[in-house]
Amino acid sequence: MVGRRVAIGLCAATLGLMASGVTVSHATKTVVSDKGTFTGVLSPNSTGFSLKSTKCSLTSDGETKPYTCRISGTISSSFAATLTLTSSDGMTRLTGQGKPNSGGTGFVFSGKATERDKPDPGKPAPKPYSATWTGTATNPDAKGNTTGTFTVSESPTAP
What we know:
Blueprint: H1 2-19, E1 31-45, E2 48-60, E3 67-76, E4 80-87, E5 90-100, E6 106-117, E7 129-138, E8 145-154
Antiparallel strand pairs: 1-2, 1-8, 2-3, 3-4, 4-5, 5-6, 6-7, 7-8
């Protein structure tokens, strides 16, 4: 009888979460690989906007000193993002989808990433590996200036 009540309770909780928009899954645990902030310019192009950072700072896992970085790419009129993040630590290709944030002051993004770390001195280049990312960007001002954040997460076993 207790087992049946637990099963019914779990089903009800799952349905409640699904109805509220929360996804229940058995996702692989990830750890933060890189985290940073940027200031940049969004310029109109034929499919939406081009983004080019004017200032970018990235802190990689296990590091205390931030790296200077660059983030650039395109964001379509439907908010599909294709971006490249580069630093002396390596390069990460970001693809994903954005949507307006709840406050109407900018956008939130999420998607898939491919990381390519720079090799350690005297070592071969490590193989690229899959990751995920999230980010934010403020609505651009009249000159196209925007600020934002990014977080790249990877498997705990990634290099």
